[in-house]
């Protein structure tokens, strides 16, 4: 009566706290997910969770199945890896570059987990390289690039990891602090703090300011997110960052955040991989681990289609 898909669905429901977000996580419509859960409850003869609660509250039967899922699904994953090794797919090289200053929050746990399970694969993030990562990937100098700015290159596949919203961080006492969202004209008299990258790689310029023909009064750069937050908190400027990068500062009420525009600016983070590498079992496992780790440690992200 109980299938693996049921266990994955229950974990997604627990982790997200709602049917809508759980359906996105397991790539189903809300109607299909509700039907799947109702069918399982009918088979078992008892409810698994209480409807119309947020976050979702599980019954004793639901909690028992959650415990089963936590035990069984990791064992299935490990068995799949072991079988892949037996099939001779364990050796390889994974040299990567990261076009994302705030990605280490989820990437480091991903790499640590991957190294433990694929010790035969050489993992490295080369430092001090002076080349454009995506062309270097095509030249086989790299094996994977984390990017939010895909470029059409031959033999390169962009695997979507998750969607994120860019938010504007401002000081608590800032004139924009109480706004739910800001418009491009709100930034024309502001100092905009960014990472030291080209404006063409920043959503706040390419998808918010430039389409409206607007520019900030001044821009300045900072290498670290922590330094950017200190500058923002002391009213030395404002900055746009992915929602997950702002979580800890918002929880501490260190800064405030506004959406960019009424609908918000949402981007997608990708793992760029050469097509010939996609058939490697360990590469598929790294991408799957990266996606699962992201949803385990980051707040506010959404599944990518």
Textual characterization of the structure:
The protein is of the alpha/beta class. It folds into two domains: 4-85, Arc Repressor Mutant, subunit A (Orthogonal Bundle), CATH 1.10.10; 93-304, D-Maltodextrin-Binding Protein, domain 2 (3-Layer(aba) Sandwich). The chain contains ten helices and twelve strands. The chain has helices at residues 4-16, 19-25, 30-44, 60-86, 104-117, 133-138, 203-209, 225-233, 243-251, 281-297, and strands spanning 49-50, 57-58, 92-98, 121-124, 144-147, 156-170, 181-182, 191-194, 218-221, 238-242, 256-260, 265-274. The strands form two sheets. Strands 3, 4, 5, 6, 7, 8, 9, 10, 11 and 12 form a ten-stranded mixed β-sheet that branches. A two-stranded antiparallel ribbon has the order 1-2. α1 packs across α2 and α2 (19-25) packs across α3. The chain is globular, with a radius of gyration of 22 Å. The mean pLDDT is 91. Belongs to the LysR transcriptional regulatory family. One of its GO terms (cellular component) is cytoplasm.
* Sheet with most strands: 10 strands, mixed
Rounded radius of gyration (Å) = 22 Å
Shape: globular
Helix content: 40-55%
Name the assembly state.
single chain
Order of helices and strands, N to C?
Answer: HHHEEHEHEHEEEEHEHEHEEH
Tally of domains: 2
Instruction: Tell me, rounded to a whole number, the average pLDDT.
Output: 91
Number of strands: 12
User: Strand percentage, roughly?
Assistant: 15-25%
Determine and state the CATH class of the largest domain.
Alpha Beta
The number of distinct helices, counting runs of at least 4 residues, comes to 10
Query: Low-confidence parts, pLDDT < 50 over ≥5 residues?
Result: none
The helix-and-strand class reads alpha/beta
Distance between the termini: 30 Å
What is the CATH topology of the largest domain?
Answer: D-Maltodextrin-Binding Protein, domain 2
Architecture per CATH nomenclature, i.e. the level-2 architecture of the largest domain = 3-Layer(aba) Sandwich
């Amino acid at each position: 009566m109980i299938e693996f898909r049921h266990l994955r669905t229950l974990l997604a429901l627990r982790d997200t706290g709602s049917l809508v977000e759980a359906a996105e996580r397991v790539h189903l419509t809300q109607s299909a997910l509700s039907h799947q859960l109702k069918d399982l409850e009918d088979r078992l003869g008892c409810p698994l969770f209480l409807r119309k609660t947020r976050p979702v509250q599980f019954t004793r039967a639901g909690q028992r199945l959650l415990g089963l899922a936590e035990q069984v699904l990791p064992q299935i994953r490990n068995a799949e890896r072991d079988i892949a090794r037996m099939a001779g797919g364990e050796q390889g090289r994974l040299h990567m570059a990261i076009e994302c200053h705030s990605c280490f929050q989820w990437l480091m746990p991903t790499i640590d987990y991957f190294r433990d399970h694929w010790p035969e694969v050489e993992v490295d993030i080369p430092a001090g390289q002076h080349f454009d990562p995506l062309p270097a990937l095509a030249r086989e100098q790299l094996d994977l690039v984390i990017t939010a700015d895909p470029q059409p290159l031959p033999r390169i596949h962009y695997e979507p990891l998750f969607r994120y919203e860019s938010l504007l961080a401002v000081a608590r006492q800032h004139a924009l602090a109480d706004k739910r969202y800001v418009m491009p004209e709100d930034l024309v008299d502001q100092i905009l703090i960014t990472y030291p990258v080209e404006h063409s790689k920043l959503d706040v310029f390419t998808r918010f300011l430039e389409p409206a023909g607007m520019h900030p009064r001044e821009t300045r750069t900072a290498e670290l997110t922590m330094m950017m937050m200190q500058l923002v908190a002391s009213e030395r400027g404002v900055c746009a960052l992915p929602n997950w990068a702002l979580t800890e500062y918002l929880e501490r009420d260190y800064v405030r955040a506004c959406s960019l525009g009424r609908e918000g600016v949402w981007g997608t983070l990708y793992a760029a991989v050469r097509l010939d590498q996609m058939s490697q079992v360990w590469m598929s496992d790294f991408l799957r681990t990266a996606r699962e780790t992201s949803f385990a440690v980051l707040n506010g992200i959404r599944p990518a289609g």
